[in-house]
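Minutes, project check-in

Agenda point 3 was the complex the collaborators sent over. CS summarized: two entities, 681 residues total, and the question is how they sit relative to each other. Sequences were read into the notes so everyone works from the same version.
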Amino acid sequence: MSEPSERTVTDPPKIITSRFGYDDAHTLLRYEGTNGYDGLKAALAKRPDEVVEEVKTASLLGRGGAGFPAGVKWGFCPPGVWPRYLVVNGDESEPGTYKDRLLMERDPHQLIEGVLIACYAIGCGQAFLYVRGEMALAQERLAAALNEAYTRGYVGKKIMGTDFSVDIVLHWGAGAYIVGEETALIESLEGNRGMPRLKPPFFPAAKGLYLQPTVVNNVETLANLPWILREGGASFAALGAEASKGTRMFAVSGHVKNPGVYEVEFGVTTFRDIIFAPIYGGGIRGGNELKAFIPGGASAPWFYDEHLDLPLEKGAVDKAGSMLGSGAIVVMDDTTDMVKAALRIVRFFARESCGKCTPCREGTGWLEKILERIDTGHGRRSDVDLLLDVCDNISPGIAWPPKQTTICPLGPSAVSPIASAVTRFRDEFEARLGGGEPVPVTVAISGGAYIGPAEPGPSANGNRQPEEVAAS
Amino acid sequence: MARLTAENEALALEIIARYPLPKSALIPLLHLAQEQDGWVSDDAMEHLAELVGVTPAEVLGTCSFYEMFKRHPVGTYLVGVCTNISCLILGGEELLAHAEDTLGIRAGSTTPDGTFTLEDVECIAACTEAPCLQVNYRYFHRVTHDELDTLVDDLRAGHRDDEIPPHGTLSRIRQRIPAGVAAGAVHPGDGGEPVWVASRPPPPKPNKG
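CS then shared the predicted structure for the full assembly.
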């Protein structure tokens, strides 16, 4: 079972959270006093292609969820097609995720410097900083920081006396999880409903904002660039392991003694370390047992005791059937009601489905309804299999990595936590089904309350249930 | 309610000018309209349509997609209690139920005096600080039931006016790009290699063989 971490876990090097100890880290004065804009200076002393090489040497993986190497992603822009745009994805909304907001609130200049380095390297004519609408403090801090940076000549025309010129436009979202998907982000930035575009042909690097080559990078990804340019890509790549270099921020939430956001060495630290080590999560609260944990945000399949010794490394976690995603670890102890947990996560996806693709729009809604009736004790004996059947319709085979019947991964994202919960804790779901005893029709006031007979047959109250509709 | 005031219209034009195409400014402009009136009225949407050169229906299409835009008046204070996974397992639903009791309304509705609107919200990126809530998008972390009651009393008494502006005002600091230092919006038709790329070409690749 869950044992406390045995090896001593020590403080890792701080790259992106190095200024978090200062209350005034968001001011230009503090930033300049702590190596601020030195990375930009180092970048401007190089050719753009050399900056790209430096980032490739660092093997910086995207920190938004997909974990694609940033330098390689930049290289997908077709040569000779101009202008190019940079869009910063600051729409952090994956349940469990809490890092980009901190980076924007506490150290906005670090992000601005990262944006400038990326624009210089890629040749972007303009950058848009898309910040989630609900993050008022982040918007205020970034607006103030940008105003300071413009005044000091770090942003705008002829940056630091060179021929490099770029505007960074601060843009706010308005409440939509789906906008975190990069093509939806671009639609939203064009002033439209944030619905994802079909890929192909709309790969942002080729046909992005205004159908021009566009690089979409996550906040944490860009926040690493000043350090990489200042200290060198090789120094960054010296940290971490295998395919996962540098450090990474993880939010450890839920039933741990010390919930918190921790910057750890990527690829070396294990789940056991980050959940149990005294300098991180500190173990499960109140002497309880670990029941399950989400390794990378609500979209990720769940992990259990047997996964604790996996390193926080992309390859290892992918191979074990889940993902590190957005660095969000949600720990659930043995008091957790798995039906409720699954219901709440699927309700999120049902609410946030943009409605463009039928399997996701209808499927997530049905999953929510079925789970709701199980939760309230009105579930039917066939409901657990019905859940898996609906999941299979959204993501055929319920495999990992998921297959899609939809344009974007939101639909399949709703499937993985449900499939995890139903497969691992099937007994908890079945225990809620009420024993299959038919209940009087009169209680079925708002529909969905009828518990059907064990054998398939017409419902006594005449309500047609989904699988009957499907069969007819 | 109203179209944008002359002052806000000038601000709207300044915002539009930052973008390569005017419609890109639509979401920031909808926020501006909401800041002016506390919600987004049909008149305001018609005005925005004129400013960015699209039909009012297109503005409504965008507006109605995003949860933060309220197309009817809401309370001065929008209280959003998170009940998503990290908060759920640490008392988020109980906190929401307590807020319903304290305010005397169900989630999704507004107090009769128009002071509070209560919402059951999705993850607001404060997962390690559960259970959490926002008032007009300002955070409150690890909130106990007593703290929620005190917060409600404070808001009613106006004791939090310095930190929490009325609903609609999102960022109290605006980005300003003075004309003298602006690099300028880059239109998608503005072809040509950027000067700093053209002036620093990569060295020619050595011929193989």
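Noted in discussion: The domain at 6-63 of chain B is CATH 1.10.10.1590 (Arc Repressor Mutant, subunit A).
Follow-up: revisit at the next meeting once the mutant set is ready.
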